[in-house]
UniProtKB/TrEMBL annotation:
It comes from the Bacteria. One of its GO terms (molecular function) is transmembrane transporter activity. PANTHER family: EXPORT PROTEIN (PTHR42718:SF42), MAJOR FACILITATOR SUPERFAMILY MULTIDRUG TRANSPORTER MFSC (PTHR42718). This is MFS transporter. Signal peptide: none annotated. The lineage of its organism: Bacteria, Bacillati, Actinomycetota, Actinomycetes, Kitasatosporales. It comes from Streptomyces canus. It is a multi-pass membrane protein. Gene3D superfamilies: MFS general substrate transporter like domains (1.20.1250.20). Residues 22-538 form the Major facilitator superfamily (MFS) profile domain. It is found in: Cell membrane. CDD domains: MFS_MMR_MDR_like.
Length: 556
């Protein structure tokens, strides 16, 4: 049977000579996607103060990136497969960089959210392109190692985002954090043109645009529901989104089952290894994104670290990711991915369980062990799960394969921030209500303090400033009796400010412990399910051989 080769990578009998340099470009592209979210977490307090953001505004600043990112990946992955994976990468980097510049110039909540949405659209082109180009460029024998490096880059970005953003915030406004991505994107564009070989499917029929549109509808509606419902209540918009997501998903599955060349062959999800790997990725990022969301807040607000200091204190996580990646590269070929993925998920569960010990007296030292265990778990579990997902797709569908993996990441991450973030907010408000019961503060003041940990400390600071103003009035008073009354009032206000600050700190610490317990239970139950689903090493080997045969058929 005659082989039809249309791309430089596929013409070569030997592996592409500069494939490791190409991997560096792909990792740079991945770096800015992850940093776009992690850098924002440390810039959020300054942004909130400068723009006067409500909690709803801030939530949509964060998630305005996520909705187009998650919703568009499957369609963009298929388009990249058919026309040009490198072209999708380059276009995505251009759109992403343009959105970052737009964010730098933004001066309102609306424009920041719009800029983030543009960046999310660019990320939806970049993310599946990085994995599909990696899989197309590296021979199967080296692919697991390359994916391990790709995964480790995510761990670096988790710590690098707050670190670089914190350094910028020492001397510049929050808008400067958007510019972090621009020089990296520019370098990646030039390097991609030089080092990344062009690639597209050797044989790809017409794109299933109806399936692509249905995927955009149901994934976008699902992400919107996940964001809106837990945070802002199950009002008409959230319930409507839930209905659209359910109907859209059913229509998508029915259409894909009947289409001769579906966007995604949904029958793959009946394969235990494929389903288990996707579930592992989603659950892991549920835990990672959720924990990162409240850990950075605790370090900044409760422990009082600056943005830069917070970034530095996340470095143990990045270091541990490298160690875990090295371990999985050694262990997975010997014991099989079932054991390394399960071990990583057990480690993630243990990290969350360690966070249940956090209380009002906890210092940074109490966070080091959970951060290191979580980083080790990320390194162990994610690269073999990603390799298994990519291995389930033939060469003609690598972009879609990358998009499926990345959609699992985004669904899990969105669920983590929405569910664990909502639990955190509810637990914090309940604990603060108990801690301030019987206080003489106005109900409106207490309600404001319960909105978030940042709002709580703002209320305490306001009371302290009022105490200073009354003390100054007492110093100026000429009537001794009035001066004594004012001095006593100032003392009461100062004591109230300290009590409020202590109550806010202890309430948030208790909320972190409570939320971590729920997260550990969810991830622990998920670990058992994944362990049951994933095939053992002997069962996985025939599946891998079948995947290789499908790849050969896909190029003939």
């Amino acid at each position: 049977m005659r082989l039809v080769m249309t791309e430089p990578v596929e013409k070569m009998e030997r592996p592409y000579a500069r494939r490791w340099w190409a991997l560096l470009v792909l990792c740079l592209s991945l770096l800015i996607i992850v940093m776009a979210n992690t850098a924002l977490t440390v810039a959020a307090p300054d942004m909130t103060e400068d723009l006067g953001l409500s909690s709803a505004d801030l939530q949509w600043v964060i998630d305005g990136y996520t909705v187009p990112y998650a919703a568009l990946m499957l369609l963009f992955g298929a388009i990249g497969d058919k026309y040009s994976r490198r072209g999708a990468l380059l276009l995505g980097l251009g759109v992403f960089g343009g959105g970052a510049v737009f964010g730098y110039l933004a001066d309102s909540a609306t424009t920041v959210i719009a800029a983030r949405a543009v960046m999310g659209t660019g990320a939806a082109m970049i993310m599946p392109a990085t994995l599909s180009l990696l899989a197309a460029t590296f021979p199967r024998g080296e692919r697991a190692k390359a994916i391990t490096v790709w995964t480790a880059t995510s761990g670096v970005a988790i710590a690098a985002g707050p670190l670089v953003a914190g350094a910028l915030l020492e001397h510049h406004a929050w808008t400067s954090t958007f510019l972090i991505n621009v020089p990296i994107a520019a370098v990646a564009v030039v390097a991609a043109l030089v080092l990344v070989p062009p690639s597209r499917a050797a044989k790809h029929g017409r794109i299933d645009y109806v399936g692509g549109l249905l995927s955009v509808v149901w994934i976008g509606a699902l992400i919107y529901m996940i964001i809106e419902g837990p945070h802002f209540g199950w009002h008409a918009k959230a319930l409507a989104a839930a209905g659209v997501a359910a109907v859209g998903l059913v229509l998508f599955v029915v259409w894909e089952l009947r289409h001769p060349r579906p966007l995604v062959d949904v029958r793959r999800f009946t394969d235990r290894g494929f389903a288990g790997s996707n579930l592992a990725v989603a659950l892991f990022f549920l835990a990672v994104f959720g924990a990162f969301y409240y850990l950075t807040q605790h370090l900044q607000f409760v422990l009082g670290y600056s943005a830069l200091e917070t970034g530095l204190r996340m470095l143990p996580l990045a270091g541990a990711v490298f160690v875990g990646s090295a371990l999985t590269g050694f262990l997975t070929p010997r014991v099989g991915m079932k054991w390394t993925v399960t071990a990583g998920m057990v480690g993630g569960t243990a990290a969350l369980a360690l966070l249940t010990r956090i209380d009002a007296g906890s210092s940074y030292g109490d966070f080091v062990a959970p951060l290191m265990v979580l980083g080790l778990a990320i390194g162990l579990a994610l690269s073999p799960a990603t390799d298994a997902i990519m291995g389930a797709f033939p060469e003609s569908e690598l972009g879609v394969g990358g998009a499926v993996n990345d959609t699992s990441i985004e669904l899990g991450g969105s669920l983590g921030i929405a569910i664990l973030g909502s639990l955190l907010a509810t637990s914090y408000a309940d604990h603060l209500s108990d801690a301030t019961a019987g206080s003489k503060l106005p109900a409106s003041t207490l309600d404001a303090a319960q909105d978030s940990v940042g709002a709580g400390y703002t209320v305490a600071q306001g009371i302290g400033e009022r105490a200073q103003q009354v003390a100054a009035q007492a110093a100026r008073a000429t009537d001794p009796q009035q001066a004594a009354q004012l001095k006593a009032q100032a003392g009461q206000l100062a004591s109230g400010a300290r009590q409020m600050a202590d109550a806010v700190g202890s309430s948030f610490s208790d909320a972190v412990a409570h939320t971590s317990l729920i997260g550990a239970i969810v991830l622990g139950v998920g670990t058992v399910v994944v362990a049951v689903l994933l095939p053992g090493r002997k069962a996985a080997e025939p599946a891998a051989q079948n995947a290789e045969e499908k790849e050969l058929v896909g190029t003939r």
